[in-house]
Amino acid sequence: MERNLKELISQMTLEEKAGMCSGLDFWHLKGVERLGIPSVMVSDGPHGLRKQDEKADHLGINDSIKAVCFPPAVLSACSYDRKLLEKLGEVVGDEAQAKNLSVVLGPAVNIKRSPLCGRNFEYYSEDPYLAGEAAASFINGVQSRHVGTSIKHFAANNQEFNRMSASSEVDERTLREIYLPAFETAVKKSQPYTVMCSYNKINGTYASENPWLLTEVLRDEWGFKGYVMSDWGAVNDRVEGLKAGLDLEMPSSNGINDAEIVKAVQEGTLDEAVLDQAVERILKIVFEYLDNKKEQPLTLEQDHEFAQHAAEESIVLLKNEENILPLKEKEQVAFIGGFVKNPRYQGGGSSHVNPFKVTSAWDALSSKENITYAEGFSSEKDFYDEKLVAEAVETAKQAEKVIIFAGLPESFESEGYDREHMQLPECQNRLIAEIAKVQPNTIVVLHNGAAVEMAWVQNIKGVVEAYLGGQAVGQALVNILYGIVNPSGKLAETLPIKLEDNPSYLNFGDGEKVEYNEGVFVGYRYYDKKKMKVAFPFGHGLSYTTFEYSNLKTDKDTMKEGDTIQVSVDVTNTGDCFGKEVVQLYISDLTGAARRPEKELKGFEKVALNPGETRTVTFTLDKRSLAWYSTELHDWYAASGEYQILIAASSRDVRLKKTIQWESAQRLPLHIHLNSTLGELLKDERTRELGKELKGKLDAFFGAVDGTADQIDDAVSDDMGDAMAMSMPIRNVLSFGLADKEELQAKLDELNNK
């Protein structure tokens, strides 16, 4: 239905327009009944709907409608499956239509800067490429149902402590390379209907009133067309926020900030056209939903089955010594731990879904024989119960294999606060150690929303990372453990050995200013650059079959501005069962033009293969795949030279390599002066001739000094002499009387101005 929104807005009073820019209550936008504009509802829902009708709250304290809890982003990202994530979005969109919700508040794409962030279970990855691709797929799915999404939290929101007031102090390059690209990818590939700004400041300016962030970058550079809403209570100065590009304040301000907008317009400090534009953006999305609204049944049982499938596609097999998994039907297996019967399947806070049912592993095991159970420890607290431990150890002794379901109690991680450590409850670590002493065939299954330390990992044969798997996680896990489903998930984050290894360790959790001093070296970018041992690397995940990579090809060996390169590689299932492999493509910059990570993820594809089957996987690379962000150019830049394509099964398991050549039409601006070094001149082809000329004069000068040649030969090696020459400032040429200052300065000016 065509509407003239500008005409509609012209009929609104100033007070009505101001009112449209804030919520009616906790979850509803205002309407204008006399003009046929109804109120619509928004709701949390990155991994399931949390629709509240009465006694609304933000942190999930009060119950919401019965719905389906799908695997949160911490697990679904491990699928590395765009089609699966798009389907997840479609299912969530259908449920939103069925429950009359206009916008689902998600996905959340903030980078996992530290394992301690209390909300990591809602975030996809430590890698911006993976997070962006996952988010775009989910958004496309939801919005195919004409239900909006609100990608969040924009931007640099990477901790919960003092999240409403802390300033994330991040340099421009780090913002552009790490903390903004997931949003950028989603905006360009899927145009989310809304973007939710974060609570925090960015370099001293609140995200809610940051014109560079909300207008220059989001709208002018990326082409965002929807409206920007605040996180709940994130507004600092409503009028300044409106000017910066914050269209909608949530929740209601009880008319206080609406009156501030009216006053600013009346006093001439706010152009009414800015208000009109915000209202138009909001109404456009409201009517996009209303004009496409349809009756949609709520298919809970069917969606529960999809939740199970999504978990099965995402669960990660971390360790499988001696092929201890999959289990065999006739084996005597002991299942130990409170999570066997009471799984932890979602995180706490605003995304907390009220599931209509939950399938535990014990529920899924009910039809199987040869299984026993011992609680061992509670799933809800850290208490070492001697009686429970003794029963568990005895049960373990009697079994052929033991599966310990360990993990984090709900109180250990939630929105609103950060974790203080990376450890499992001590009662669980102690029990795992005790059982490992008496049972060599021990496997640990983990229920956790973020990375945990595994002090016991060397003493057990198998580890399965289930993260938080949604309401059907129990059946999904049993299917994985018994080989009904072959695991194919890969880690979307690095699992470090200990917390202190994390690059943000010394700069995380400050309350006023949070210094992002690790820069672009986040996650595997840091661990791989330092060649640091980790528990399990980014992208890692095992299968019950094996895969061989071969025949890496590119359609060209040299790429220029505007070109793309097509990359292909063959993958063969060399095992004896059906399986899926996630093929990862990383790029390594060999030019040395900037300090960069050893490798960066720039492509991934999940491929399904029968035994003996080979399929060709293809990728497309462009300039951005090679580039880093230059703060001199305020643009993406790739230096001319060699780049290596790495085809890998994880960031630490590179299978094939191929070098390509990039020819750049861009050049970084020259800034040479009398204190620039000869080495700098010789490194750049634009100044190399001058560098050679000056170095030649210096070499001739030192070679002509009478009576010193033998002493120089004895005291100064060739390498030392070359190094000293390369680090010598140009001004030394003047000091030795080898050039005229004015002439030399003129040459430098000429080169700088070219």
Give short descriptive properties of this protein.
31% helix, globular, Rossmann fold, alpha/beta, Immunoglobulin-like, 24 helices
Describe this structure in words.
- This protein is α/β, with parallel strands linked by helices and 754 residues long.
- Among the domains are: 79 residues, no CATH class; 230 residues, Rossmann fold; 117 residues, Immunoglobulin-like; 76 residues, no CATH class.
- The protein is built from 24 helices and 27 strands.
- Strands 10-16-15-14-11-13 form a six-stranded mixed β-sheet, with helices on one face. Strands 1-3-4-6-9 form a five-stranded parallel β-sheet.
- Helix 15 links the parallel strand 14 and strand 15.
- Helix 4 runs parallel beside helix 5.
- The two termini are 56 Å apart.
- The model has no long low-confidence stretch (mean pLDDT 93).
